[in-house]
Amino acid sequence: MLNSLYLRLNVTSILVLVIFLSVLGVVIDNAFSESARLALKERMLGQVYQLLTTSELDENDQLIMPLPTDLPYPQLALPDSGLYAFVAVNGSDRLLWRSPSLTNRQIPKPFALKVGEKKWSELIMEDDNHYYLLGFGFQRTLKTGIYSYNFHLMTEMLPLYKQIDQYRHRLWGGFSKCFGRVVSHADFGTALGIKTVTEG
C-alpha cells in the first residue's frame, strides 16, 4: 500500500514538473523570439535614419544619394547581400533610388506613408526567402515646394531564424537534461518494492 502511494507521488511529481517546464519553456521561448524581432526592428530603424542623413536634394530638387563606396553600410553596395534599400515618391510606385544590392532583384511595392510614419512588413520574395521590409515617411521643405519621399529598407530574416533556432535548441536541450536528471533520481525501485542486492 505504501509502495503504491509512493509510486503515485513520484509519478504525480514528475507530471507536474513536465507541465511546469513546458509552460516555462514556451514563455521563455516566446519572450526571446519577440526580443530578437524587436532588436532587428530597432537596428533597421537606425539604419534607415543613417541612410536619411546621407541623402540630399540638388539645385533641381532631385534626390541625391551617396556613391556605392560611400553608403553607410557596405552590404547595400553588394548584390544579393541580404540588405537592400530603395526610395520612392510618396503615394507612388515611382522609384527615385535603389541600392546596388537590389541589382537584378524584384523590388517590393512601396508603402504609402505619412511623414514620420514607420511601417514593417514580413515578405516572401521571388527567391522564396523571408524578408523584413521597413518603410519610413520623410519630407523636405524647400523654397520650391514640399517633397515627400518614402525610404525603405529590406533585410533577410534567415539570420534571425537561425538565432532563434539555436536558442531553442539550447533552451529545450537544457530542460531535457534537467528532466532526465530528475527521473534518474526518482526512487521507482523502492516504490515498486524492488530491493537492491549488494554483494558482501
Properties at a glance:
disordered C terminus, two-stranded antiparallel sheet, 7 strands, 200 residues, alpha+beta, Beta-Lactamase, 3 helices, 5-stranded antiparallel beta sheet
Detailed description of the structure:
- The protein has a domain of 101 residues: 2-Layer Sandwich (Beta-Lactamase).
- Helices cover 42% and strands 24% of the residues.
- It has three helices and seven strands.
- The protein has a five-stranded antiparallel sheet with strand order 4-3-7-6-5. A two-stranded antiparallel sheet has the order 1-2.
- A hairpin with a 5-residue loop joins strand 1 and strand 2.
- Helix 1 runs antiparallel to helix 2.
- The C terminus is likely disordered.
Termini separation: 30 Å
Q: What order do the strands of the largest sheet run in, or round the barrel if closed?
A: 4-3-7-6-5
Specify the oligomeric state: single chain
Which residues form runs of ≥5 with pLDDT under 50? 188-200
Q: Using the alpha-carbon principal axes, give the shape.
A: elongated
The structural class is: alpha+beta
Q: What's the mean pLDDT score?
A: 82
**CATH fold field value of one domain:** Beta-Lactamase
CATH class of one domain: Alpha Beta
Strand coverage percent:
15-25%
Number of helical stretches of at least 4 residues: 3
Give the H and E element order.
Answer: HEEEEEEEHH
Cα Rg: 28 Å
Shape-level CATH architecture of one domain: 2-Layer Sandwich
Q: Can you lay out the helices and strands and say which pair or pack?
A:
Layout: H1 2-53, E1 56-57, E2 63-64, E3 83-89, E4 95-98, E5 118-124, E6 130-142, E7 145-156, H2 158-185, H3 188-191
Antiparallel strand pairs: 1-2, 3-4, 3-7, 5-6, 6-7
